[in-house]
Amino acid sequence: MNQFFNRHYTPATILFFLLIVSITPTTILNSWAIHTDDYIQTQEIPPIPVWIKNNAGWWADGEITESDFLLGITYLIDNRIIKIADRSILKNADNTTDSTITERVPVWIKNNAGWWAKGQIDDRTFVSGLVWLISNGIVKVDSIGISFLPIEDVMFSFMLRNNDKHEFTHIHSSLFEVYVHPTEFLMEDGLQKWLSPLLGLNPYKMDEYNDLALWHDPQKAAVIFPVFTSTAYAEGGFYDYYRGNCDHCTTTTLKPPVLLFTSSGNAVQALTLLGYDLLNDIEVDQNPDILKKYDKIVVLHNEYVTRAEFDAITSHPKVIYLYPNALYAEIEVDYNDNTITLIRGHDYPPEDPVSNGFDWEFDNTHPYEFDTECLSMEVYSIEDWRSNVGIDIARIGGNQHWMTTCYPEVPFYSSEYISIAILKTIKDL
To answer: Are 196 and 181 spatial neighbours (Cβ–Cβ below 8 Å)?
Structure first.
């Protein structure tokens, strides 16, 4: 296997420097007040959203990741809850992190997050400490990420043309500009997952995007939106059956596509913004030959597919299975009734349970599906099964199918370093 990237000091790492440095919750502001008032506007600080304070407590208790909490901190800056009077400290900031700085971070720093969450540290103390850390270069802030770029200047995926983007709030500048509805998130396995983040192109980063995009590249590549999987996870779908809430939900009505964590919504946006054609399960099922128009196919979390779609994907010369758990269960589609029906896989049917509905030897669901941080992601090639069915491997260039070792949905909005590595690899394979 080729190492995709090693763990370095990513944007998530700087979280360790974002919290207030103090030995006790009562001795912080006094020593910093003279300095911080030079940078922070003196009017009363607006109330900090409850969800950010909840994040602080959850992070202190180890229930969410550093990256998740970092998004809340950038929200404070981007929405002028933290109002910087002297923006030169931001313009001069270097967004790289000194690898030695971790040696100067006290081991008790998480305690401060807990104290603030419990009300033992007031909001202004928290904000003053944060600004002090920024102004003294301990926190390295990306100036573009706090430049208040007008949303009208941000280019979103065409899939979002019907969204009222002004209902969303800018929380983060990574490779993409990230917008979320502030209340739309859930906690799952200790991780905060935004339900519908919007990714947009920053017009000041076009040189960076050009290195990753297919706009001027001769290759034709397409990504397949997992419509069937999106339906399976929707209310009244297969997962209501798996949870024992519905006996008949192994047949469910097809739903319009929704850009969620389970439907690879972030990857769909990133790839379409960068010039990849967008197909969907229905198009491939009804016309499998459509894949022959493309040099390369990117499969997302296409967990539920038909036999026709499975055959079309696995027989294509070049395929990147970007998400583990792809091609996991077989379904049938009734286009007259607009329904999908679970046939086999995901431990179904109960009288003859099987894991992979196609008995696919390259299924990589376990153990990779539940690694959502992708800090040591790898891309590996799989043996070309077509060699066993008489296809001329030499003619098509040998093994051209690749898989990954994590579920890379979160990094597309949380980590510039990881998302660049993913997108560059997809383009170059």
So the answer is: yes
